[in-house]
Amino acid sequence: MKDLTSTALRYKNGKLHVLDQRKLPGEEHWHICKDENDLVALIQGLAIRGAPLLGIAAAIWVGHCAARGDNREELTNTITLLRASRPTAVNLMNYLDRLQKLVDSGADRLSIADEVAAIFAEDIALCAAMSERGAALVEHGDSILTHCNTGSLATAGIGTAIGVITTAHKQGKNISVWVDETRPLLQGARLTAWELEKAGVPYHLICDSMSAGLMAAGKVDRILVGADRIAINGDFANKVGTYALAVLAKHHDVPFYVVAPQTTVDKHCTDGASIDIEQRSADEVRGVAGSFGSCTWSPVEAPVYNPAFDVTPAELVTGWILNSGVYDLDDVIAGALASK
Ligand code: MRU
């Protein structure tokens, strides 16, 4: 299979190199993926993360297995294993289902490898398209609040919400960004801050609990977030804490946008209540771990509730910024997402 390169993944000379996002920003460590169980562990441990990137990493591995000569049954087993690695981001299922169809049709290894390269190139193009559409909505001097990490670490391209931000910045819109830390795994503090710093975008890091005060003080002009799965009625799942931001945005009359590619829309999902929300380990809430070290701050056996995502209802969303256009609630009710 041909070489592929993004910020967080590299397929080179038949090997998949993964930038271990658990170690960022302290250490830029590239791990060479050993086998499918290793890839599942990397995905579940969030070394590889972000809805589109999960699907792309899994797709690359399937292309790799096809290229080395795995047969139809072996490829199907690998797809089944990877498909179950995380439940919420639908991009993973979308990309793997696309490859499973090819495998079922008896496609040869070259066709499967070509499809993986097409998926990779397509994600880069989807990022560019939605970023342009979103940047057109950003006004000169805007202060934008964002949550989690939705940039080049989460996609093959420039990202979704962060793609909008870096595009608006490049257009000279003089924006600044409120980056919330995104407890419990700190994707905002560790990853978004790292990306914005590299891109030269002015930002301030805040604790998650500070966003309400900022909005009350009139210091947030708009909120841009990503998504892991969008139902056709517009409800969507994203990193836990997104729903709270949407409620606050409604109360303070701050425009609240979700930015995602069409691969994040689940046409089989009618509403947010049907989205499977991943529950994660108690230790993520009892303390913290990263390249900076680790500690537990709660009683060691403290009972924990740790959903990785929450669901934001469509009525709290100002607009859905997709690669194909920007849609409001009326468009969504009229079926705009169902036809994507
Ligand atoms: O658990 P994570 O880090 O994979 O969660 C990521 C998010 O929730 C992102 O906002 C979402 O995947 C969109 S990434 C373009």
Portion in beta strands: 15-25%
What is the 3D form?
Answer: globular
Number of strands: 17
Measured on Cα atoms, how large is the radius of gyration?
Answer: 19 Å
Question: What kind of sheet is the major sheet?
Answer: 7 strands, mixed
End-to-end C-alpha gap: 29 Å
Q: Give the name of the CATH superfamily of the largest domain.
A: Translation initiation factor eif-2b, domain 2
N-to-C order of helices and strands: EEEEHHHHHEHEHEHEEEHEEHEEEEEH
Question: Which descriptors would you attach to this protein?
Answer:
4-stranded antiparallel β-sheet; alpha/beta; single chain; 7-stranded mixed β-sheet; Four Helix Bundle (Hemerythrin (Met), subunit A); Rossmann fold; 2 domains; 340 residues; binds 5-S-methyl-1-O-phosphono-5-thio-D-ribulose; globular
Characterization of the model:
With about 350 residues, the protein is of the alpha/beta class. The chain has 2 domains: about 5-125, translation initiation factor eif-2b, domain 1 (Four Helix Bundle (Hemerythrin (Met), subunit A)); about 130-340, Rossmann fold. It has 11 helices and 17 strands. It has helices at about 35-45, 50-65, 70-85, 90-105, 110-135, 160-170, 185-200, 210-215, 240-250, 285, 330-335; strands at about 5, 10, 15-20, 30, 145, 175-180, 205, 220-225, 230, 235-240, 255-260, 265, 285-290, 295, 310, 320, 325. The strands form 4 sheets. Strands 7-6-5-8-11-16-17 form a 7-stranded mixed sheet, sandwiched between helices. The mean pLDDT is about 95. Bound molecules: 5-S-methyl-1-O-phosphono-5-thio-D-ribulose. 5-S-methyl-1-O-phosphono-5-thio-D-ribulose binds near residues 52, 155, 160, 227 and 228.
